[in-house]
Amino acid sequence: MSNRYWFYADRGQQQGPFPEAQFRDFIARGMVRADTLVWTEGMAGWQSAGEIPGFFSPAARSPSTPGRMPAMANGDGGALSIDFEILEFVGRFLLFIFGVIFVLPLPWILVSNLKWLTSRTRVPGRPDLGFTGEPMGILLYYLGGVVAIIVLHIIGGRSTNFLSFLIEIALGWAALRWFFANLSSGGQPLGLSFSGSYWMYLGWNLLGALATLTIIGWAWVYTAQTRWVYRNVDGTHREIVFKASGLEYLWRAVVCIVASAFIIPIPWVARWMMGWLASQTVLVERGAYAEA
Fold first, then answer.
1. Residue 166 domain-assigned?
2. Residue range 173-182: mean pLDDT, rounded
């Protein structure tokens, strides 16, 4: 039995992914017919299930009707999604605060939280998303950065503050490279890498810092920076697109800030915001997406 995962189109909506054993059960129950469009990783486009060898008898097969991946009801056939229980989030958040306070446990807590968060993320065509990074992979960089920042703050002065900023940006850039390199699907490495340069990443962060002076401009810088990050992810057959606008991000951020002032709603607004950010990240055929 193949270990592939399958998608099928039902009334214009993409369903899946489903393991092949379950997919064959759908065929036996009549949920997937010979003329149903289906797709799995490695296929150039969607095809009728009857054209896939081994699913239907020759008499039941319909003429080939290859097509593009159908869009979901919201128009984003390749949109990511994320969901988690509120109590899970609260526990993870408190664990992160513990790591920040005591410093040394933070790499282990960050890795644990990343493994948890990726397991709650759904990516079309990539079943069982996971994170395989380990704390030792970043421990030396983390400790070196912490020590350098502490020393610079002890020395003091404006120039040392700027050097501290450069180190923090370097750690963030290295973390991006480490994160994408350790993503997996179905227990297998995805083979992704982040090729964006440190200097471009630094430039985006400097622009973001300057944009805060305008009060609202940072939202547009954030969306543009996110698009730049996705454009520089190598190793994926599909293009990763962040389609949100600066205005859409801004008003949601304002809602989160206001709601968080009351403390108790924080987990709910965090899930709402993270779910929206995931839904704005879509996987499309390369060259098929044009920004409005």
1. yes
2. 95
